[in-house]
Amino acid sequence: MINSKMSNMKKSNELSRVLIKGGTLSPALFYDIISFAENFGNQYIHLGSRQDILFSCPMNQNHEHRTEFSLQKKGSAVQNIVSSFVCVDILPSTSWLYSGIYLKVLEQFNDTHQLRINIVDPKQNMMPLFYGQLNFVASETANYWHLYLNLAADKNLQHWPGLIFTDDIAQFARQLEKVIIQKNLTCKELLVKEIEKIHLQKNTLTSDEKIILPEGFFPYYEGFNKVDGKDLYWIGLYWRNNQYPIPFLKELCELCRKTNVGKISFTPWKTLIIRDINSKDKMYWDELIGRYGLNMRHSSFELNWHLPLLDKLALQLKQYIVSKFDQLDIRTYGLSFSIQRKIDERLTTIVIRPKGRFPFLGSLDFTRSYTIEYAMDFNPNNNKYVSYAIKLSKKDLPASLYELSKKYSAFQFVHYNTQKLAKNERTESKAFTVYQCSNCHSVYDERYGDQLANIEAGTPFQLLQEDYCCQLCDSAKSDFVETEMWETV
């Protein structure tokens, strides 16, 4: 039976995608997906840059599992919903943003989308902030999100006027996508007018707050790591060739079940992360990793690369550059690299682009040359890239990248000292009082009131009616606790 399926698979020669909403799923569902892939003769699965799972599978059959997970042809226009859920407890985060908030948002998305939608925390530096077309970015105001549109060909970001409430994100995205696609609009001002017609804009909160971009872009996602302040660990798994063996993954899912690990997450770096591993269970994970002989100590040269899926030439070029880096003893801490052909795929500090008149010839194309771009201020979240070198031969690449790494070091020196000077000149901080829900940590700030409860700005908490409740979790007014917050003036 399996042989016939393998034959059918080879004839179709198609990669299929399983969309993993928000980049997180249960071990049980992951087990079902990889078992499904195994039934079609796959020995491995691959991970995509938008937190999806890929494997070979004929798409000309009615798959009974489609009710359990979304199976799409690789080239389909359907997009996955991406989130920074994976970063919770691993990287710095916005104070009110925790796992439950992400899950609450993701549950709202029940339909497919043609635009890339990202749900991200601006404090972390693993997930690029503006890699989507509709980017919902957490604000400092609890349960409200900025919206950045990345629709223009020149990649100029458009900041939506006002903050979007947590409960409205999916509906807002659905209606906005409908207008963008049906009316072919990309201008923010025109889109705002269209959204006002369907009365969604009334649920936004006015704010002039600006996002502070996370500094550096050096995502760490491998090996055993302890969660700060908790008796828990997380583990990141990386395969150089992006071929994750199904037998290992099935055992991993079974171990998750036995040790009560509830979620498996994926990163845009095509790696998977398991969180909430109890310290008493660490030895079982050590045993599994040791039995399969996994390398858990790759160098930073190796880790901070992003390559096109299953591109052998890109992998060979990466291996060549990494070996040259090692020989030249180049410091690349804080830098990330990618080899990309598509202009719109930029999520690393440095982008290398192969150029050739006859790309179908592959390694036999002797006209091939390379260009190098780098992110403005060496921060990919700026969404702006600068051309550094063009028409380079393969042998010229390492030396050019070496010079660019020195340029980065010089920039870091100036940037650090400028920040230090600004910090020394900063004036005192000012305290202000808010009332925080003791259950979900939502904040009632008298300066803003509560728009959703029709409470005007400036209304003291003591004057709220006794039946006032938290707009996120419905906790009573008595569950709010007076607390002090600080802001720099």
TrEMBL record:
Its cofactor is Fe(3+). The keyword Ligase does not apply. The keyword Transport applies. Residues 432-483 form the Rubredoxin-like domain. InterPro entries: Nit/Sulf_reduc_fer-like_dom_sf, Rubredoxin-like_dom, Rubredoxin_dom, Rubredoxin_ET. Keywords: Electron transport, Iron, Metal-binding, Transport. It comes from the Bacteria. This is Rubredoxin domain-containing protein. It comes from Marinifilum caeruleilacunae.
